[in-house]
């Protein structure tokens, strides 16, 4: 897929910066529930090209601002993680549910432009983390 002509790759990965109310609680959640490797600097799952976060202690609770739901959306998203196929997507859903994640949008299928399947979980501060993709296992 090419977005704007063919260019050499300059950016290898990115991460999402989140201000959190309780840094230690968030680090534990990102480790225990989301399955991230958590250090003093970041929370990463599947390497820096997977899903990655920089968790920063907020100066006050008023500084923490999860996104609200957009028009037509069932929940606010702060991060969207693309998953290669529905087998892996279902496995992630089962894993997160078993670990006690707050599921704010159960898996659902959107037909236009897909079919696309996704679900959304919420971290302790209310940040929405969505997971979804097309089914590359479909023939």
From TrEMBL:
**Database matches in InterPro entries:** Glyas_Bleomycin-R_OHBP_Dase (IPR029068), Glyas_Fos-R_dOase_dom (IPR004360), VOC_core (IPR037523)
Q: Which PROSITE patterns match?
A: VOC
Which N-terminal residues, if any, form the signal peptide?
Answer: none
Which residues does the UniProt record annotate as the domain VOC?
12-134
Top-rank taxon: Bacteria
**Name of the protein:** VOC family protein
């Amino acid at each position: 897929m090419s977005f704007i002509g063919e260019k050499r790759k300059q950016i290898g990965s990115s991460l999402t910066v989140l201000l959190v109310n309780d840094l230690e609680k968030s680090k534990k959640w990102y480790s225990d529930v989301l399955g991230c490797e958590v250090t003093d600097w970041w929370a990463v799952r599947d390497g820096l090209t997977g899903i990655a976060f920089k968790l920063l202690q907020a100066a006050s609770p008023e500084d923490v601002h999860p996104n609200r739901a957009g028009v037509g959306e069932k929940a606010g998203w702060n991060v969207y993680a693309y998953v290669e196929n529905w087998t892996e997507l279902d496995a992630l859903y089962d894993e997160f549910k078993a670990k006690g994640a707050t599921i704010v949008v159960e898996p659902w299928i959107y037909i236009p432009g897909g079919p696309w399947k996704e679900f959304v979980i919420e971290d302790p501060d209310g940040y929405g983390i969505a997971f979804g993709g097309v089914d590359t296992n479909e023939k």
